[in-house]
Amino acid sequence: LGHNLKFHETLPSTQKEAHHLAEDGAADGTLVVADEQSTGRGRLGREWHSPMGTGIWMSLIIRPDIALHQTPQLTLLTSVAVVKAIHDITGVECGIKWPNDILYNGKKIVGILTELQAEASHVKAIIIGIGMNVNADAADFPDELKKRAASIKSLTGREHDRPAIIQAILKHFELLYNTYLEEGFEIIKLLWESYALSLGKEIYARTVKGDTIKGLAKGIDDEGVLLLETRDGTVHHIYSADIEII
Ligand code: BTN
């Protein structure tokens, strides 16, 4: 993975670039990295703040032979790889808020955006975008992000080596991905649960449709879908939502 590396000083979005490359047939494991993004994209159509030189802005193209409905599993797998990599290189132990926000003390350090290229029900490529706040100073965040986001430097008080973190992400991703392809999702699910911040807690889930459901986060199913139990005992299957831990 990552042997085919496309590095850019600046790009509108590594995610957009990776989509183009994948459509043009880029090999499995192609990695696009930029030092700055002018129009970084987040989940649910949001912007992603990606200033020059302080973060990791990258998108990985993979071409697994899996069914469409299995793709959320790879999102969860990626978040496990990223948490392990941060711990290896910086010593910081983050947790995961379903599906794949990586937090420390309630503040977001990393966001992951998984997107698909598919034909009928066959996956042609998965584009995994990772945005990590590494060396920004707390004061550099725009005001609206200060309460919700943090960088690793703001936690440890020192700068961290971005290429070393990228390498560690690729190493862990590759190990977990091979395990996944050979043995399935079971082990990945257990690992993900060991880092999960929301399980067993009362949460609000705001769905893409705009509904808010309050309930108990019971767990995830074998495909990575969140199981949310409301007071009347109904278990809702949440495929995509924003979670707030109450
Ligand atoms: C989220 O909303 O939490 C996901 C954020 C994903 C951001 C990354 S940065 C690299 C890649 N390129 C983009 O434009 N977005 C993703």
UniProtKB/TrEMBL annotation:
<feature type="binding site">
    <location>
        <begin position="41"/>
        <end position="43"/>
    </location>
    <ligand>
        <name>biotin</name>
    </ligand>
</feature>
<keyword id="KW-0092">Biotin</keyword>
<feature type="binding site">
    <location>
        <position position="37"/>
    </location>
    <ligand>
        <name>biotin</name>
    </ligand>
</feature>
<dbReference type="GO" id="GO:0003677">
    <property type="term" value="F:DNA binding"/>
</dbReference>
<protein>
    <recommendedName>
        <fullName>Bifunctional ligase/repressor BirA</fullName>
        <ecNumber>6.3.4.15</ecNumber>
    </recommendedName>
</protein>
<feature type="domain" description="BPL/LPL catalytic">
    <location>
        <begin position="1"/>
        <end position="181"/>
    </location>
</feature>
<keyword id="KW-0678">Repressor</keyword>
<dbReference type="GO" id="GO:0005737">
    <property type="term" value="C:cytoplasm"/>
</dbReference>
<keyword id="KW-0436">Ligase</keyword>
<keyword id="KW-0067">ATP-binding</keyword>
<keyword id="KW-0547">Nucleotide-binding</keyword>
<dbReference type="GO" id="GO:0005524">
    <property type="term" value="F:ATP binding"/>
</dbReference>
<dbReference type="GO" id="GO:0016740">
    <property type="term" value="F:transferase activity"/>
</dbReference>
<comment type="function">
    <text>Acts both as a biotin--[acetyl-CoA-carboxylase] ligase and a repressor.</text>
</comment>
<keyword id="KW-0804">Transcription</keyword>
<dbReference type="GO" id="GO:0004077">
    <property type="term" value="F:biotin--[biotin carboxyl-carrier protein] ligase activity"/>
</dbReference>
<keyword id="KW-0805">Transcription regulation</keyword>
<dbReference type="GO" id="GO:0009249">
    <property type="term" value="P:protein lipoylation"/>
</dbReference>
<dbReference type="GO" id="GO:0006355">
    <property type="term" value="P:regulation of DNA-templated transcription"/>
</dbReference>
<keyword id="KW-0238">DNA-binding</keyword>
<comment type="similarity">
    <text>Belongs to the biotin--protein ligase family.</text>
</comment>
<feature type="binding site">
    <location>
        <position position="108"/>
    </location>
    <ligand>
        <name>biotin</name>
    </ligand>
</feature>
